[in-house]
From TrEMBL:
SUPFAM superfamilies: Acyl-CoA N-acyltransferases (Nat). The keyword Heme does not apply. InterPro entries: Acyl_CoA_acyltransferase, GNAT_dom, N-acetyltransferase. Keywords: Acyltransferase, Transferase. Signal peptide: none annotated. This is GNAT family N-acetyltransferase.
Length: 185
């Protein structure tokens, strides 16, 4: 996918690769969704919400992308491509006999329950299959994150087990359900 041309995802929403110029837009999106995302993400200090810190994160993500270890996309408003409404990322891409990546995503709180998360997950897993040639994509959800679990199930992911104290989310180590999607055979 050309990073300069956002691809249609759903009516009103497009997807494209992350750019350095997205720092201010990501800062605004995270500020707008601060309360909404707090329960699902690590604790964030004030610096996280600044364009300067977002630029540092973007640089790190693009460095990982340049060596084939990450694919970071942003979801943007169709009419205003600087207005970020979510993100989806394949991280920890491993080649060799594993051919695996981790999936993460979030959608603006004002756009929940419109199919955007599901469309972003399908887009990322299709890319993992067709462009990256991966065998497997995995994702983890908090036990009580029913909406995300439903999105993954609809996209063909299967729960494969629980991981006690898997990630430090909202300030404490929390159990997660692990999911996988086998992309080939």
């Amino acid at each position: 996918m050309d990073s300069e041309a956002p691809a249609p995802l759903l009516p009103g929403v497009r997807i494209r690769l992350l750019r350095r110029s997205d720092a201010a837009g990501l800062s605004k999106a995270y500020l707008r969704n601060r309360q909404h995302l707090a329960a699902w993400e690590p604790e964030r200090d004030e610096a996280f919400f600044t364009p300067r810190h977002q630029l540092d994160i973007i640089r790190a993500k693009l460095a990982q992308h340049s060596v084939g270890q990450e694919v970071p996309w942003v979801l943007v408003n169709r009419d205003d491509p600087a207005y970020i409404v979510g993100a989806v990322t394949l991280t920890g891409i491993v080649r060799g006999p594993f051919l695996n990546a981790n999936l993460g995503y979030w959608v603006d709180s004002g756009l929940n329950r419109r199919g955007i998360g599901a469309a972003a997950v399908r887009f990322a897993t299709d890319h993992a299959r067709t462009e990256l040639g991966l065998h497997r994509v995995q994702a983890a959800t908090l036990l009580h994150n029913e909406p995300s679990r439903k999105i993954l199930t609809r996209a063909g992911f299967r729960e494969i087990g629980a991981a006690p104290q898997y990630l430090k989310i909202a300030g404490r180590w929390q159990d997660h359900l692990l999911h996988q999607l086998l992309l080939h055979g």
